[in-house]
Amino acid sequence: MVVFEKAVDVVATVEKIAQPLCRAEGVELVHVEYQNESGGLILRVYIDKPGRVALDDCVLISRQLNDLLDIHLEGGKAYNLEVSSPGSDRPLSKLEDYERFKGEVARIKTIESLDGIRNFKGLLMGTSDENIHIMVENRVFSIPFKRIQKARLVDYNGDKQCL
Q: FRET pair for 72, CA 20 to 30 Å: which of 42, 91, 134, 138?
C-alpha cells in the first residue's frame, strides 16, 4: 500500500502504470490529471490514437486501468476515474508535444511570471534546449519547459500522428 502526500505523486504513479497499458492497447497516453473538483477527487486520463479515440477505447482502458489502480493506489482517498480523448483543447504535457504541434495555437501558463507575463496564447514555434518557443503578437518568447504549469492547444482540429 502506498500513501501519497501530493497530487503530483499520484499523477506520476498513474503515468507509470498507464503508459505500458496504453502502449499495449495501441493508444497514446496523452496526459493525467488528479484534482479536487466540485464532485470530489477526479483522476482524469486522456488517451489518443490515429483516426480519433472511440468510446470503446476509453471503456477498455478505463476497465483495465481501474483494476490496476485498485492494487497500486489502495488505501488512498476515493476518486472518480475518467478516461477520455483530449478533445480540441488537447493538453501539452511532454516536451515532444511542443515540437509535434509546432504551428498550432496554444495557451501556456507558467509557474512564475516571465517578463511580467504568466499566461501566453500564441503560435507554437517548436523547442530548443528544453525551452518552448511561442509567438505572441509577433514576439517570440522562450519558456523553460520546467517553468510551465499548464499548457493546452486551442481549438485543435487535426490528427498529428499519435503514438
A: 91
